């Protein structure tokens, strides 16, 4: 086999691995949001590396799986009925066993408290941003860092994800 053909094959293999990695990261992140929407909070810590760090809105950074599990347990204790989620616009970059991703997230409500009582509503929503880093461990992608902020209609105090 010629050196030129070998080089072409190596470049193709790198591109295929990058595309497969990007698809795997996107699928993993979507499955995570599906678990949140289904309120399967006990499953969420399994999406994170042992030394992962999350920074979710005003809750402050949490490091390690135990602290992350505690954060999600708090979410389980706060009832939120009638909400659904859309995860979109992924910008995922893969380099070997590491990746980064920026995502747009929307939460839509089918009910809200108005005048002290819960009513069915149309059009109540939030928009948020995930700014994440991922690592592949034993062939499986996991979050190594997750930062999440609401950006619309009322942004969290520090607003947009870091660049």
Highlighted features:
six-stranded mixed β-sheet; 47% strand; 3 helices; alpha+beta; elongated; 163 residues
Plain-language structure description:
With 163 residues, the protein is α+β, with helices and mostly antiparallel strands. The protein is 32% helix and 47% strand. The protein has helices spanning 3-37, 41-44, 65-77, and strands at 48-56, 61-63, 83-95, 98-114, 117-137, 140-152. Strands 2-1-6-5-4-3 form a 6-stranded mixed sheet. A hairpin with a 2-residue loop joins β3 (83-95) and β4 (98-114). The longest helix has 35 residues, at 3-37.
First and last CA, distance: 44 Å
Number of helices: 3
Portion in helices: 25-40%
Low-confidence stretches: none
The portion of residues forming beta strands comes to: over 45%
Rg measurement, Å: 19 Å
Secondary-structure-based class equals alpha+beta
| Biggest sheet descriptor | 6 strands, mixed
DSSP strand tally: 6
Principal-axis shape equals elongated
Strand order of the largest sheet: 2-1-6-5-4-3
Mean pLDDT: 88
Instruction: Give the H and E element order.
Output: HHEEHEEEE
Please describe the topology of this protein.
Blueprint (H helix, E strand, L loop, with lengths): L2 H35 L3 H4 L3 E9 L4 E3 L1 H13 L5 E13 L2 E17 L2 E21 L2 E13 L11
Parallel strand pairs: 1-6
Antiparallel strand pairs: 1-2, 3-4, 4-5, 5-6
Summarize the structure.
With 163 residues, the protein is of the alpha+beta class. It has 3 helices and 6 strands; from the N terminus they run H-H-E-E-H-E-E-E-E. The protein has a 6-stranded mixed sheet with strand order 2-1-6-5-4-3.
